[in-house]
């Protein structure tokens, strides 16, 4: 698969260039993740993805391209699906962040998660946490999306396994389950 799948978020931090980043250390940044308040002290330009994975232990958002191109790292920020790899820590201040770990409530999987299982929508699964977050943001804004609207919402999420048709069916199934 993609060479960038060797994940810098898993490597020791700080890494190369740490001195410059430490020089840019910000005031503590406060935000919520999955409803829990957090305060993080790190260089202001640290990607939010690194903070989620390395500081907060939330490994659901994945590192793929590291440049906002593949969707593997998507999380919801104030309800919008965004690439955590391309979101600097400073810009998360005061925001409500939802990761794939926050989709289930009280131990009950989200309708999207149930639908993805029912449709077996995925193969390796690497893309799925990002796709789930894009789909969750879509259904939040548009509970009854058309096929074209689902495709447009997933435009920034790559699936190298080619599970697109099953993913589309799963999102439609979840929309039907959630619709009043
Ligand atoms: S890792 Fe590819 S968009 Fe973030
Ligand atoms: S990349 Fe493997 S299921 Fe999407």
> Can you tell me the CATH class of the largest domain?
Alpha Beta
Instruction: Please report the total strand number as a whole number.
Output: 5
Round the Cα radius of gyration to an integer and report it. Answer: 17 Å
Strand content: 5-15%
Please provide the ordered H/E string of secondary-structure elements. HEEHEEEHHHH
Name the overall outline: globular
Largest β-sheet summary: 5 strands, mixed
Strand order, biggest sheet? 2-1-5-3-4
CATH superfamily of the largest domain: Beta-grasp domain
- State the CATH topology of the largest domain: Ubiquitin-like (UB roll)
Q: Oligomeric form of this entry?
A: single chain
Helix/strand/pairing category: alpha+beta
Distance between the termini: 41 Å
**How many structural domains?**
2
Count of helix runs: 6
Given as residue ranges, the uncertain stretches (5+ residues, pLDDT < 50) are 1-20
Bound molecules: FE2/S2 (inorganic) cluster
Overall residue-averaged pLDDT value: 89
Helicity level: 25-40%
CATH architectural designation of the largest domain:
Roll
């Amino acid at each position: 698969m993609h060479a960038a799948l060797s994940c810098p978020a898993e490597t020791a931090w700080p890494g190369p260039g740490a001195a410059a980043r430490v020089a840019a250390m910000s005031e503590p940044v406060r935000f919520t993740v999955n409803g829990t308040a957090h305060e993080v002290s790190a260089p202001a330009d640290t990607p939010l993805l690194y903070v989620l994975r390395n500081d907060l232990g939330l490994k659901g958002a994945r590192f793929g391209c590291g440049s906002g191109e593949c969707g593997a790292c998507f999380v919801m920020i104030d309800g919008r699906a965004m690439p955590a790899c391309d979101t600097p820590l400073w810009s998360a201040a005061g925001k409500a962040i939802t990761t794939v770990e926050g989709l289930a409530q009280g131990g009950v999987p989200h309708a999207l998660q149930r639908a993805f299982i029912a449709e077996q929508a995925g193969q390796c699964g690497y893309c799925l946490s990002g796709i789930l977050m894009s789909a969750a943001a879509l259904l939040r804004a548009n509970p009854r999306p058309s096929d074209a609207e689902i495709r447009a919402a997933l435009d920034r999420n790559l699936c190298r396994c080619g599970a697109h048709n099953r993913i589309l069916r799963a999102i439609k199934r979840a929309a039907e389950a959630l619709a009043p």
